[in-house]
Amino acid sequence: MRQTRPEAYENRVNMDNMSIVLVRPKHSGNIGSVARCASNMDVKNIIVVDPRMINHEEIDKMATHAAKRVVEKIRCVSSLDEALAPFQYVVGTTARRGTSNLRGSIVSSTELGETLAPVSRENQVALVFGPEDRGLTNRELQRCHIVAGIPTSETFSSINLSHAVMIACYELFTWRGTKSSPRIPRLASACELEAMYESLRELFLKIDFINAENPDYWMVAVRNFFSRTTLRARDVKIIRGICRQVECYGEGTTSGSVKQNKNLDIPTGDPYKNSTATKQAGRNRPQSDTTISTGFGKRHSRSGGEDGES
């Protein structure tokens, strides 16, 4: 579903590459209201993760006929991992104030346009919203490249789910840069990044770099470190290859050869003397599959569990 806009739109956010992800929404009416907001702001894709129940009449009623096309494309999945797998950039949202070492700094929704305009040209971006009563958990926020909050009154900060979606999407839809922002190339997908983090986690445990009693907590700093940069699929492949070689070295099964270069698409020998091979390797770099299948699935109702993390 990769789409790009002509040069005239380079100082805008590519709304065609934006998708809304709703995690465990409690009310079907809110799903319909979100669909209406998405239609207002040119967002065409909504993914619902483990909804408490699905009432299609409520969804259709709140979405109105104008958002029918968006509603028809809504996709339901069972987990956040499944929802985020094809995306190259993930934005989490929270109503919590301040900062935390579990989430990193929280940017204002007014800053999203400037951040996402260059990313959205060639990458699929997910805007993730949590359940109405609790929001996203710390573990879910760790999956995001950045976390955004909406400025509100300190006396009452709670915002209706559809209102939060509308505000965030409005900031993106109306943002205009004064000049063309730098091009950000195709990035690694969330699925590829999670595989990399798992490889790093296993390696760090083997070499006692992180505490085995709570490895996920110690991996937060690693995630924050990599979230400050933009990794491409080939970058992730190189890091995973390094992890494999270090493990093999520790087990005494590596010969110190460059045979792993075959898996990394890196030409052997001096790369400066083999420019043709280097260019060929770049052309053959595998691309991530960012196709999002559509369809709302079977019409049924089911209950989802609560996540009590804060």
Q: What's the helix and strand layout?
A:
Layout: E1 18-23, H1 28-40, E2 45-49, H2 56-63, H3 68-72, E3 75-77, H4 80-84, E4 89-93, E5 106-108, H5 112-119, E6 125-129, H6 138-141, E7 146-149, H7 161-174, H8 190-206, H9 215-227, H10 233-251, H11 261-264, H12 275-283
Parallel strand pairs: 1-2, 1-6, 2-3, 4-6, 4-7, 5-7
Helix pairs in contact: 1-2, 1-7, 5-7, 8-10
Overview of this protein structure:
- The chain folds into two domains: about 170 residues, SPOUT methyltransferase, trefoil knot domain (Alpha/beta knot, 3-Layer(aba) Sandwich), CATH 3.40.1280.10; about 90 residues, no CATH class.
- About 40% of the residues lie in helices and about 10% in strands.
- The chain is built from twelve helices and seven strands.
- Strands 3-2-1-6-4-7-5 form a seven-stranded parallel β-sheet.
- The relative contact order is 0.16.
